[in-house]
What we know:
By secondary structure, this protein is an alpha+beta fold. It has helices at residues 3-21, 58-75, 159-170; strands at 24-25, 35-40, 45-52, 80-83, 96-101, 128-133, 137-146, 157-158, 184-185. The protein has 3 helices and 9 strands, in the order αβββαβββββαβ. The two termini are 34 Å apart.
Amino acid sequence: xxxxxxxxxxxxxxxxxxxxxxxxxxxxxxxxxxxxxxxxxxxxxxxxxxxxxxxxxxxxxxxxxxxxxxxxxxxxxxxxxxxxxxxxxxxxxxxxxxxxxxxxxxxxxxxxxxxxxxxxxxxxxxxxxxxxxxxxxxxxxxxxxxxxxxxxxxxxxxxxxxxxxxxxxxxxxxxxxxxxxxxxxxx
Length: 187
């Protein structure tokens, strides 16, 4: 191979590496954050549930479900809602497991696992543990909705206030519409 071939290969590999670093990052919309299901139980009672990936924290899943409950409340013409404390509400964090990873290999002058001094057995680098979620986060609420402020109890949530405070964090407008995320160019 001559020098032109090496230069061509080097230039093309440099171009590929540079092009892969300039990709666009597309954030998820609210509907892509999890699998949502909503069932209307009666005129003013709904069952709202969300199932998110194990990568999200349980608290984030609770916030997303609360935003979804506020969105459902406004979409059906109500102004506030209360989460009912019934046995069907699932509020348990996901199961977790402790995973032990293999220690890194240690190479000595006497071979891979040759004679070692006591200093090299059971060292601090031999025990790597990691806690992982082994199932997705699931949160389900039964909510009762109210149209006016005279009938609602003291512990009811104002749906508009929830969407003002938490909705912007997850891409939901104050009226319950899904906002389109901004595409940011990374370099």
